[in-house]
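Case study 2.
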Amino acid sequence: MNTQNRWLLAAAGILMQIAFGAVYAWSVFRIPLSHAYGWTIAEVTAAFEIAIFVVGFAAFAGGLWMKRSGPRPVALVSALLYGVGTMLTGTAHSLTTLYLMYGVIAGAGLGVGYIVPIATLVKWFPDKRGMITGLAVAGFGAGALLTAPAADSLIASVGVGRTFEVLGLAYLIVVFACALMMRNPPEGYTPAGYSAAASHPGRSTRDFTLRQALGTWQWYALWLTLFLNTTAGIAIISQASPMAQEISGVSAAAAAGMVGVISIANGSGRFLWAWFSDAVGRRTVFLMMFLLQAVAFLLLSQVHRFGVLSLLAFVILLCYGGGFGTMPAFASDYFGAAQIGSIYGLMLTAWGFAAVFGPTLVAGIRQATGHYQGAMRWLALATLVSAVVPLLLRPPRERQSRDFSVEGVGTASGVRS
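Prediction:
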């Protein structure tokens, strides 16, 4: 595949992620589902929380499967699970069925497929790792922007159940078509004129297996970095509308507008920070994001004007998206691209745990104190302390890989996908 054609593969990967990113439009369905079936907002929201929790573990399973079968079969199964699971959500008349169809089946399809374009594109673009992973997951961030108005219009015209059926069919077709383009590069592929050692001396020169990566402290530090960054951002996502109404006194419609604005930040941050990391380094980017969030959360605990609140939330969501855009390239730098599907796939469990921990933390503090300001101060302190983690990060040493060989695991240089 030449340079021009690898960009076609990249376009397919981005389109897949746009379809997967529709999950962030879930809030559009909360009130219609409540009205249709009498479920509470909390009960409807639980379907989204289950889906995101399942995503992290399914991404790991998808990464392991990719190592044996390549990206295309994994992506095809993802299309079936995600599309059919969403379609069957339209027939759900009980909470158990809703959680099974959307939370488990569609969530599993989303997770299995989410890792495919990321793990595939870093192999095709070793010269532009940050930029390409940023573009791919920016598609995920943009999914809600495209899906939310379409879903809202469909609900008004055909009802919430039929809307799930229409969207599920669309997801199935789009992801299936893009899946047919997914494939790994030829053995030993490098773009013309590219030298990994010469271009990026801070990268590991070996490809780690999952077991080898888990034997380094760096893998756990990267997991913690992703968990901390995701916890901060998803805490805002989960509470954006009620928080805006309570702190600034705006209407629900105005608060919904802020939700749309921060979704733009989520999508654009995935590309901008990842692209910037190619120039200044991944550690520097995460350090900057944690410090920016610490300042933004501290200011959030003091402000009452809607415009300032929206701006600060925008900054936080830029950093939230930036974590997802930058971390795949970060992990590839440290552990190589050959088995990044399983290595980064397991790392995505941080997303699932953060999706539970972040909203629970903010809601608990809000319940205990009667206001959001206390939660914002705690998050300011947490993100400030989190800045220590990227300061400590260093690539795995060559000796670590040799130690694995002595233990009978095998040399990392011999790993191929």
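The CA atoms of residues 115 and 388 lie 28 Å apart.
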